[in-house]
């Protein structure tokens, strides 16, 4: 028994060491679990209060204000539901009698532009409907509200209207789907069949022909899978509390089976589409100048689709699809690259691009801002108006508008004098152009006014400002925090604010380099909707070139900060690989002093990523060989020599044989399980009986 205690004590010490090493992740997981439990318990309490309401009598409702003026003012406030105004709005609702304004109240709630943080306050209003509606009107209000919310998913507009307002409709669908699920959890929505119709439409393969619709549906389905995991039969976090919560939800096994099959079928179809596009993008041959722009559009569309598919796979607890590498795909390499041994390496032998799933999700699964933020706040509404006006505007072949004077003509006008070369002018055409330009300017002014009005409204609702947002920026040290801050910035989007944000992002303290991955994620997320953010990359590139030519040691920390920023942006595929290689080559050409530190920091940041990427593995391998040759021929001090070796082996670890584990008989494995896994204070007697029964008949065995 003393021997058993010794083994158990040794096991406990190892266990304590493991707990100490993983203390922070365990605490974080425990905090998330506790928060999840509180959320489920709150839903259970709301559901219980909704199923057993304490309704006031009709005499109480007569004492409330039923005047048109007061009720109209309250109904207007229903369109601006948010967490800050929730308490004040609920107090006002308790003081009025809305029994005669059921349809108006339903319309106001359905038209409200809700954000994710506004969903819970919006759920409180139907739950408290007994306080400001007559008993005979409560069910009418709830039924009308559900039907009104479902209209968001029904195509009721023309194709032109849908195309002009596509982003705002996508965001409205997302918030409405979240609201319907929350209403289902608390018992306001009793029929889970409404989600069957919604998912059936979202997973229809007919939508795959429209790329914007596909992106929207992927975002909606991923949100639905994360919020309603039990509807799909996915494993749950805390079985006990969720089983108690799910008892009141009338979801049938057939419905669960339908949801799971619909998601799986749609996921397979989208993966097939993704692989087909991947094959097109990796086809052999050279692109002509005419097809270069089309290729770039397809590549960006493919990247967005890949992020959407990865997000859906993560929500479904599935591995994201791995795109097949064609052995005949043409790679841009030099003559030396072809002769190098790495060039002949099979693509299947390449290591995984990311070390783990969390790292891959951090760099590849970016939030879709169009699903969270109205299009007008992203600056996408004005170009659409311009495109529509340009479609209706027919420019005569014999005239050239003033806006096109700087452009190169691709075709000669048929009405050009052979002698003088002067284009014939038409006065009527000029008048038409002038009128259409005036109309276009009027439309642009209206769009600008709508943008400013939307921004002013959202600023007033949020009660935030750019200074406060920038003050919170250094504290965003997790993926969720930086994503939330990115969405909040979109509600403050303006040209001056973007400049201030870029300045704040690239002035990160040189002693806080751990913030660079999160800042880069913010840049990558914003660049999907704001092309002007790419100007930030130009700023950093100029800084790198400026500091590279300086030979002093005073700004070495600033150089390291900037080069690591470039490396992080490269992993998000914002900074091109060519920029990284040009910076690395500049350091290797003058491999002395601070250039050694800069090159090593660049390799530590993105060298492993570029070495594992099929497109750049050959070039990075050559760079690493040059690095080691320079180390061997130069007389470096021990610190610099260690830096170079660490950077090299971080990018290209030495090949090691796989560790051979000792094979033990099944009986030995069982005894080790008893001693190292099952043995604790509460199971001493049980383990002792098992060991005695074994040792009594098999005393000759040794371990």
From TrEMBL:
Residues 1-18, 424-460 have a biased composition (Basic and acidic residues). GO terms for cellular component: cytoplasm; exon-exon junction complex. Signal peptide: none annotated. InterPro entries: ARM-type_fold (IPR016024), MIF4G-like_typ-3 (IPR003890), Nmd2/UPF2 (IPR039762). It holds the Pfam family MIF4G. Gene3D superfamilies: 1.25.40.180. Residues 68-299, 467-654 form the MIF4G domain. It comes from the Eukaryota. SUPFAM superfamilies: ARM repeat. GO terms for biological process: nuclear-transcribed mRNA catabolic process, nonsense-mediated decay. Residues 386-396 have a biased composition (Polar residues). Residues 1-26, 384-461 are annotated as: Disordered. One of its GO terms (molecular function) is RNA binding. This is Regulator of nonsense transcripts UPF2. It comes from Sesamum angustifolium.
């Amino acid at each position: 028994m003393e021997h058993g205690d010794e083994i158990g004590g040794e096991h406990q010490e190892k266990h304590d060491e493991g707990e100490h090493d993983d203390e922070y992740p365990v605490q974080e997981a425990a905090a998330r679990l506790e928060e999840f439990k509180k959320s489920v318990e709150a839903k259970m309490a709301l559901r219980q209060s909704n199923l057993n309401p304490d309704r006031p009598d009709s005499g109480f409702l007569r004492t409330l204000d039923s005047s048109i003026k007061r009720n109209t003012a309250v109904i207007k406030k229903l369109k601006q539901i948010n967490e800050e105004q929730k308490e004040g709005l609920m107090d006002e609702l308790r003081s009025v009698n809305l029994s005669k304004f059921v349809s108006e109240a339903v319309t106001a709630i359905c038209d409200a532009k809700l954000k994710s943080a506004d969903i819970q306050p919006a759920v409180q209003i139907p739950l408290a409907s007994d306080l400001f509606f007559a008993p005979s009107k409560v069910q009418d209000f709830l039924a009308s509200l559900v039907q009104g919310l479902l209209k968001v998913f029904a195509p009721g507009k023309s194709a032109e209207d849908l195309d002009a307002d596509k982003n705002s409709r996508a965001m409205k669908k997302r918030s409405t789907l979240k609201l319907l699920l929350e209403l289902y959890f608390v018992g306001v929505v009793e029929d889970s069949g409404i989600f069957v119709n919604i998912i059936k439409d979202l997973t229809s393969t007919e939508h795959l022909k429209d790329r914007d619709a596909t992106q929207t549906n992927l975002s909606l389905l991923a949100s639905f899978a994360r919020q309603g995991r039990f509807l799909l039969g996915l494993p749950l976090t805390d079985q006990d509390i969720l089983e108690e919560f799910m008892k009141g939800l009338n979801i049938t096994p057939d419905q669960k089976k339908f949801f799971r099959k619909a998601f799986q079928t749609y996921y397979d179809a989208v993966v097939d589409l993704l692989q087909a596009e991947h094959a097109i993008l990796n086809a052999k041959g050279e692109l002509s100048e005419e097809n270069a722009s089309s290729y770039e559009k397809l590549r960006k569309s493919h990247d967005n689709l890949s992020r959407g598919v990865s997000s859906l796979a993560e929500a479904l607890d599935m591995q994201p699809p791995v795109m097949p590498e064609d052995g005949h795909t043409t790679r841009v390499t030099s003559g030396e690259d072809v002769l190098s041994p790495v060039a002949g390496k099979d693509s299947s032998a390449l290591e995984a691009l990311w070390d783990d799933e969390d790292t891959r999700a951090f760099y590849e699964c970016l939030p879709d801002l169009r699903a969270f933020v109205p299009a007008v706040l992203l600056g996408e509404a004005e170009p659409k108006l311009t495109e529509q006006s340009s479609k209706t505007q027919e420019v005569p072949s014999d005239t050239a508008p003033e806006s096109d004077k700087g452009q190169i003509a691709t075709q000669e006008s048929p009405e050009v004098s052979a002698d003088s070369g002067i284009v014939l002018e038409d006065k009527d055409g000029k008048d038409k152009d002038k009128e259409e330009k005036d109309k276009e300017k009027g439309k642009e002014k209206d769009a600008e006014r709508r943008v400013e009005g939307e921004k002013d409204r959202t600023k007033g609702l949020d009660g935030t400002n750019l200074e406060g947002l920038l003050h919170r920026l250094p504290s965003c040290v997790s993926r969720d925090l930086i994503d939330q801050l990115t969405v909040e910035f979109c509600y403050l989007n303006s040209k001056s604010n973007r400049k201030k944000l870029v300045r704040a992002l690239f002035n990160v303290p040189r002693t806080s380099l751990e913030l660079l991955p999160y800042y880069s994620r913010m840049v990558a997320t914003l660049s999907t909707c704001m092309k002007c953010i790419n100007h930030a990359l130009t700023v950093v590139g100029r800084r790198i070139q400026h500091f590279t030519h300086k030979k002093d040691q005073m700004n070495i920390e600033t150089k390291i900060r900037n080069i690591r920023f470039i490396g992080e942006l490269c992993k998000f595929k914002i900074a091109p690989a060519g920029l990284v290689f040009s910076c690395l080559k500049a350091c290797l050409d003058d491999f002395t002093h601070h250039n050694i530190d800069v090159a090593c920091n660049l390799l530590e940041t993105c060298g492993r990523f570029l070495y594992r990427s099929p497109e750049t593995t050959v070039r990075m391998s050559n760079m690493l060989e040059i690095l080691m040759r320079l180390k061997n021929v130069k007389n470096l001090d021990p610190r610099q020599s260690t830096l170079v070796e660490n950077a090299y082996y971080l990018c290209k670890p030495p090949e090691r044989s796989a560790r051979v584990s000792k094979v033990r008989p099944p009986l030995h494995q069982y005894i080790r399980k008893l001693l190292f896994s099952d043995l604790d204070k509460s199971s001493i007697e049980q383990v002792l009986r098992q060991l005695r029964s074994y040792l009594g008949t098999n005393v000759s065995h040794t371990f």
